[in-house]
Amino acid sequence: MSNAAALPPVGSEVAPCCPPLTERPLTAEEAERTARMFKALGDPVRLRLFSAVASHAGGEACVCDISDVGVSQPTVSHHLKKLKEAGLLSSERRGTWVYYRVEPAVLAAMGAILTKAAGG
Amino acid sequence: MSNAAALPPVGSEVAPCCPPLTERPLTAEEAERTARMFKALGDPVRLRLFSAVASHAGGEACVCDISDVGVSQPTVSHHLKKLKEAGLLSSERRGTWVYYRVEPAVLAAMGAILTKAAGG
Predict the structure, then answer these.
(1) How many structural domains compose chain A?
(2) What residues in chain A have per-residue pLDDT under 70?
(3) B32 vs A40: CB contact, 8 Å cut-off?
(4) Across residues B51-61, what is the average pLDDT?
(5) Residue B42's domain is classified under what CATH number?
(6) How far apart are CA B76 and CA B98, in angstroms?
(7) Which of A13, A41, A68, A98 is most buried, with most CB under 10 Å away?
């Protein structure tokens, strides 16, 4: 799959849809969409890679930037794709490499679901 | 397993340990602990049950309060135990029923990891 220059429209399909968890029980559909994002962060290696991208200079990183998590480059690529499919990263190809960047709006919405729940 | 009256000391073992995801790559140990909590919310049924507890009157609920998620009572109990093991719920037995309550500090810390990441 070659993603040319433009960023894919990540938000529409995968952005958090849901009220704070204290407000009312989620519907099945809401839970399906939201659980998908939490699940993406529910793997230790994937979470480490996510933090490596999020904390990288410039807020983006390619596979070539990430070497110290102790997994092979194909494994890194696999996990970054999973994070992208979950809507947590966007990507852009530049030359040889695909650069990944955190989707701030999605993370902020996930955080708000939890943080407001905590206040309730 | 009978949990008598007192709440278990949830925080010490399972509370989030980690800086915002933008600050630096998580260590393997930090990722292990944090991923565990995200994973617990990464199942749609479990997430619905969690929101049912979090949004229930008084901020707590027992299995007897949750009937509309479309899964059996043993399944509800199973998932609530998993959420407790992940540190997201605490529990207290009163008579026949175990009551579950959201752990606000844990949720707030999870939210902060994400929300600060989003701002970074």
Answers:
(1) 1
(2) 1-16, 117-120
(3) no
(4) 91
(5) 1.10.10.10
(6) 12
(7) A41
